[in-house]
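Morning. Coffee machine broken again, so started the prediction first thing and wrote up yesterday's gels while waiting. Chain of 134 residues, entered below exactly as on the submission form.
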Amino acid sequence: MIGRLNHVAIAVPDLAAASARYRDTLGASVGAPRDEPEHGVTVVFIELANTKIELLHPLGENSPIRGFLERNPSGGIHHLCYEVGDILAARDRLKAAGARVLGSGEPKTGAHGKPVLFLHPKDFDGALIELEQV
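Came back before lunch.
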């Protein structure tokens, strides 16, 4: 059901400093910051040959990343995103298997402009999973 790894998301306390580290220290191709108000984050994508890194920073007081950074002040891996061909079929299969879909269960538009869903980390060995339809 899942396809390739689309990205690894890392919550960071300082988006500009993290972007500079990837660009200047690691020599990576770093995109411009982009606000995603529906998700309460500002994102920066780092393009790699085989996947992407998504740097996440809180946008607004109710950002889910704010709480994550309060618990992890230095930042850290927030979620893994896997590609799926049909997000509704994937959702229905996962729910039938007992997995919990976060939120309303209906896909939202993600940072790539494609439908996404998040799966409860307690159902996936402590890892928050994002599914993105490609």
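The mean pLDDT is 97. Going to sketch it on the whiteboard this afternoon.
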